[in-house]
Structure formats: structure tokens, C-alpha cells
Amino acid sequence: MIIVVNGNSIDVPQDCKITSLLESLDMDTRHVAVELNREIVPREEHPERALASDDQLEIVTLVGGG
Amino acid sequence: MTLPSQTTDRAAATDQQDLLTIGSFTLSSRLIVGSGRYQNAAMMRDSLQASGSDCVTVAVRRERLHDPDGENLLDYIDPDRYTLLPNTAGCYSPEDAVRVARLGREILRSLGNPGADWVKLEVLADPRTLLPDPLGTLQATSQLAEDGFQVLCYSNDDPVIARQLKAAGATAVMPAGSPIGSGQGILNPNNIRICLEYLKQDDPDYPVIVDAGVGTASDVAEAMELGVDGVLLNTAIAHARDPVAMATAMQHAIQAGRLAYLAGRIPRRAYATASSPEDGVIATHPFPRK
Description:
The complex is a heterodimer of chains A (66) and B (290).
Chain A: E1 2-5, E2 8-11, H1 18-24, E3 33-36, E4 39-41, E5 56-64
Chain B: H1 10-13, E1 20-22, E2 25-27, E3 31-34, H2 41-51, E4 55-62, E5 83-86, H3 94-111, E6 118-121, H4 134-146, E7 150-155, H5 159-167, E8 172-175, H6 189-200, E9 209-211, H7 217-226, E10 230-233, H8 235-238, H9 243-263
Parallel strand pairs in B: 3-4, 3-10, 4-5, 6-7, 7-8, 9-10
Antiparallel strand pairs in B: 1-2
């Protein structure tokens, strides 16, 4: 199924969980926050939270700033 | 660095005890430094250390996809050592700022960093000046304060909006000295003075921080001498020819300005007052004695 992550359409397996998505994208789960369809999903819920087709995700981290 | 021992402010003026309290946060340095615009991450790490600051601002941005070798900022900023202050830089609407603030809080919660509870709110008006949108800032302040954030508001140096931000629930107001990254220093010290008067009236401990516009160390000292509680800066260190040396200069400037403020400057006078006694001068004095 296709989901949109940070503006990019990507193909993931049915019933893909947030944690497995982060792993497949080589992201360090400790350093990111995940917003699913405009709602923040707390880190504790990542292992269980399943994604659905056309889900919109924003995955953000900290960068240098003033 | 010593003051006459009879001054009651002396204890407050020594480096270790003169803490900066902002809401529930206590910082040992009155300098808050940004982590952006450094040539490389190692230079940033060394500069942060040289600045003596224990609070570092960070921005929230999209993570790169498929970049296993990509470095993370947190490889260079120890979240156990620094209190992180996430910002909403790049937001031009209160809605976006609130959204970014919540995402920043979520990352800092995962890290176990105390900075999860606060935010440096920026709601910008346009990319050329990066001046704050006062109405958008006000709206986002109310919403974030309701949401449990301690909001540190990047603001214009206008005393009227500063007072409104405080009334809307801002934990601290942070008037700009001059536009972000412009290096022009404190363009309107009189406005900063009035901001201080308005915000600290009946509430002397209310934190007022000069945020943005610093070009060099004397700008920091000037801000502190006006009586602000701290200074937040980034580019002045990151883009100096020698960032580590400039960071050291900023640390000294914070201390110099703070001590000078506590010590109390002499009034400005139009005419001279002699430091040496007039009595007993052996030279001819062509003017009538006072």
C-alpha cells in the first residue's frame, strides 16, 4: 500500500507498524517524533500502531537552529 | 572579578549563584545559544562548550529518509548536559507554530530532556526581515500556554505587544535587539528599557531576554547593562571568523554586563568631574574655585 512520508509516496507492506516503518527508513526511533494524519503518535505507541493506505506521515527530528 | 564586599548584590553577582530562573527552569548561565549555521558539528560542539551556556536552542525539521550514515544533531549535543529549547523557527502562522511546538515537545519527551516543557515561540511575518507577526505570536502564545507549554516569546521590541504577550500567558518575553542574524546589536535601547519597566513592574523576577540581532560581545554587555535577564544568540558566534573565541567573548560579556548592571552605573553628565582633588594643586588655576 502507498503512504506519504514527509511528502514522499512510499510503498509499505499491509499492516505495517510505525516502528517497522522507521526501521525500514533507517531512522533512529529515539530522535524522531511522528505525526500521523496530523495527530502526534507517542513513541510508546509506535510498535503497535498500524498504518493504512494513503496515511500522511510527518517524521521530524532536531536540527541546528537559533 | 570582585565587587566591594559590603554590597548586598555581591552574592548574586558571583558566577555560581547568580542563576537565571525562567518558569520552572533554572539556568546557571544567562547566555542561551543557538545551534544553527555552524560550519560543522564539531565546531558547534566546541563553541557551545566555550560559551559556558547550559541551554541550547534547536529547530524541528523533517527527518531524511534512508540516510543511515547521516549525523544527528544529538550526536554532538549531550541532552544530559544541556537543557534544549526547541523553537518554532520557519513558522508563519500560529497554527504551524503550535504544530511544530507539539512535535518538538514529543522529541524532547522521548529524550527525557527537561526542555520538553517549554518552547521558543517564533511566528514570523516575512522571510526578508524575519520580524515577528505580533498578532500571530499573541494567538499562539495563548494556545500553547493553555496546552501546558512554558512559552518564551520571540517578539518585537515594542513594549505594548510585550505586555500583551505576558498577559496572554508568556513565561518570558524575548524582544529582538535587531533583526535575526543582522548583527546590528540593540537598535532601540529605549524600547528595551520600557519593555523592562512594563514587564517587571510589580513582578521584578519576570524574565526578559534579548533574542536576536547580536553582532559582537559589546552588544551582549549592553543588553545586560540595560537590565535584561539574559541574551539569546546564534549567528554572532556561528559566523564569527573564530567561533570558539567569540563564544568565550560572549561568556565574558554576559558576566561583565550583568555585574555592571548589578553594580549600578554612574549617571551620564554633560560636563567633567575631576577624579583628582583640586585642593593642594601647585599649578596656576586660571578659573574661579567652586
